[in-house]
Amino acid sequence: MSSIPYHLQKKLSYTDGALYSLMVGMGETYVAAYVLAAGFSELSSGVVTVLPMFIGAVLQLFANYAVEYFKSRKRWVVMATSMQATSLVLLALSSLLHWPVYAVYAFVGLYWASGMAAGPSWNVWITNTIPKEKTIEFFAGRSRVCTTATLVGIFLGGIWLQVFKTSEAFSALFFMAATVRFMSSYTLSMQPRAQNDKKYFEHTGFLKNIKWAFQKDNFSIFAFIFFLQSSVYVASPFFNPFIIKKLEFSYIELMYVLCISTLSKTLSFTYLQDLARKNGVRALLVFGTIGIMPLPFLWSFIDTSHGMAAAMFLNGVSWASYELGLLLTILDGHTDQERNKMLSVLNLLNASGQMTGLAIGSLFINLSHLELSDYQHAFWFSSILRVLPILMLFVVAKKEVKSAHMYFRIMGVHLGGGLIVKPMLYMNEKIKKGTDQIIHWGEK
Question: According to the model, what pLDDT value does residue 337 have?
Fold first, then answer.
């Protein structure tokens, strides 16, 4: 337990969450728009939303060794979050000094790697510093604070860019995002270590985790995830250049669409979990997968910000339903350690599918003089490919699973794919009755 009073621990953690979420809203959210403002290609604007996340997904697999090296989860989290802030400083400098786009990929890759690597250790550390009976209240309140701060960051970033409208404005925005992340890291350093902070975990090895996961008869759902992510990312990386370059949305209109997408998905997570307890998890997975299918087709016929905001509302609801249904389906019937193994495999599987989709989509967008029809063809092809995962639902969603309540951390805001979220806490019905342990996502 914590060595400081709970109310002070709560205040410090909520402050950290608010500062971190401000960084997400005003920083990484506008990276794709920055790439376009800096004069790089529309293809580069799509690549920067996918390739760095893949780099991060690979590098975060080695986070366990970093925790052992620092001999403290707290030290590692503070170090990793400081690295994330530094990546934003480098990104700001790249704008001022006109560094090549490959430098941007590298800095954003460092951003994602450090953020992903800090997450599991933060979950274990913080959960062990708060009273068990306060865990649900703590995470529920922190989630509300973080969602609000993310929206504030998106709003401030959009207003700033609309007022100044230069590539240098992005540099200042990234410096501001880096500043609040450094402040977040300092707030983390003020929080106490957990009593079991020196208790480490046994390395099982990522390859062993993959082998174990496929031995558990998960091939069908893994294939479903890979094909869905591949089909989605034929189109979604190119949504930003589509609305900025071809529809000529202003930064205010971009901010408006981003806020609607964020609100719809975060609110949907709350209401859909209640719906799952009444109607079952399988219904969520089916509804979400079918809802995702026509989205790119709709984008190709919309040319106003209000119309796109309506499409983003549907996008947020559909993605929330899919992700919640998928996670509850994957994690059902596994122990705490097995769930962590599944999530580590899922992270890399998602990133691999996204890279595959990007490679296919780039065949449509990799032209020097892009027309509106090039985007439309990519979007239509993506919708057609999304039919295959729907057909796979007959195998993946053939049985019902138990519902549970989950809390998520917002990692990023990407139009076309919605929020990038990671689960923090899993609460099943046994927990409510006091017969099971609360499960937090750690490094096992």
Answer: 62
Q: Residue 143: which CATH number?
A: 1.20.1250.20
* Residue bearing tokens 């003020």: 190
Query: How many domains does the chain contain in total?
Result: 2
| DSSP at 245 | I
How many Å apart are CA 184 and CA 19, to the nearest integer? 5
Count of other CB atoms within 10 angstroms of residue 287: 18
Report residues of the chain scoring pLDDT below 50: 431-444
Q: 416 lies in a domain?
A: yes
* pLDDT for res 258: 94
Report the pLDDT value the prediction gives residue 336, as an integer from 0 to 100: 59
Rounded-to-integer distance, Cα 423 and Cα 442, Å: 11
Q: How many of the other CB atoms lie within 10 Å of CB of 100?
A: 10
Q: Last residue of some domain: 171, 192, 213?
A: 192
How far is Cα 383 from Cα 295, in angstroms, rounded to an integer? Answer: 7
For residue 280, what pLDDT is reported? 77
Judge whether 410 and 21 are in contact, CB under 8 Å. Answer: yes
Residue 396: give the domain boundaries: 205-444
Task: Note the pLDDT tens digit of each residue in 85-137.
Answer: 999 999 999 989 999 999 999 999 999 999 988 888 888 888 888 888 888 88
* Cα-trace Rg, the chain: 21
Phi, psi of 423 (to 5 degrees): -70, 140
